[in-house]
């Protein structure tokens, strides 16, 4: 399955260099469309893969089989060609974004602001905020757990106000382009530190919280400075294609639990979903794994990885849709509590269940490693807003709403998990 998702280096780079504060990226997407395609059968799937090899289009979802919708970015010179191909193949499609650059411009990044949750921020602003909170509160223990491939710090914060608490770990931004992830994780941390809501204060008192807000700092910086749509880390992975060297590993495909047993595209180094030649190869996830392993067994009782998008609480396992964890029913009840509560503020519905069932079968995710290897009894991937309207490019004016609904969900999740004996 050779899928070349290299976007178009040629077209965007040929356009004018950014001049205004709004035009921030080296790569621009003026008049690029996003098409949503529904792939009905295996024949269409095969043809779609051929198209992706012939021309430069950028799929936003893994091509995991028929019966699914896929979003694909197409440059202005290729609209007509792609539409006529789709019509010939009788693939149902619609244009969901007419000008991607306009959408990206709504994800405002203000490089001068202090940390708040109405715009997206650079790595420096996020880390400066973390450092400031750490300096201000004795109950926060902050440390650098390792370095990325390009040498950036991976920071962690542990909040502990009481001896003997059990811990909940929140993981952010392992996928570079999913900015809402670190925005939400820092929102939650800020609530735990600074909220005056008595329920939040209680959770901050009765549980320890371990937060790694930015697992992929290199990729994140790259999405700010060069290519908004980058997903992986930035280590040259040894392969190359017509655009040059291929970079990066999809780090949420690199964890070693039933690694490589199932999944799509994991052997294509230039794909956005390349899981590595073998598991546990990336310095970022090795740092995260040894950090998790540095705590006593049984201390971390819940591991939550935040991603975008689709509004799911994905439970183990990813590697199978016929094998389920021993306490799967219990995890579903806990996820249901999150889902019910998270829908209250604004009506956002979160679907929950095993990722191999709800999403597709794929191995190497953090939540499966945390459950299967580290024996943490409740683990999940939370796919945040939305359900496809903006997808990976959620406008910054939704950050606070996402934070509010996830806070509501998290409170209910922790209480339900306590009732179920997860923290005993
Ligand atoms: Zn993700």
UniProtKB/TrEMBL annotation:
Gene3D superfamilies: Metallocarboxypeptidase-like, Zn peptidases. Its cofactor is Zn(2+). GO terms for biological process: proteolysis. Keywords: Carboxypeptidase, Disulfide bond, Hydrolase, Metal-binding, Metalloprotease, Protease, Secreted, Signal, Zinc. GO terms for cellular component: extracellular space. InterPro entries: CARBOXYPEPT_ZN_1 (IPR057246), M14A-like_propep (IPR036990), M14A_act_pep (IPR003146), Peptidase_M14 (IPR000834). The keyword Repeat does not apply. The keyword tRNA-binding does not apply. Coiled coil: none annotated. The active site is at 383 (proton donor/acceptor). Residues 119-417 form the Peptidase M14 domain. Pfam families: Peptidase_M14, Propep_M14. CDD domains: M14_CP_A-B_like. Involved in the digestion of the blood meal. Belongs to the peptidase M14 family. This is Blast:Zinc carboxypeptidase A 1. It comes from Drosophila guanche (Fruit fly).
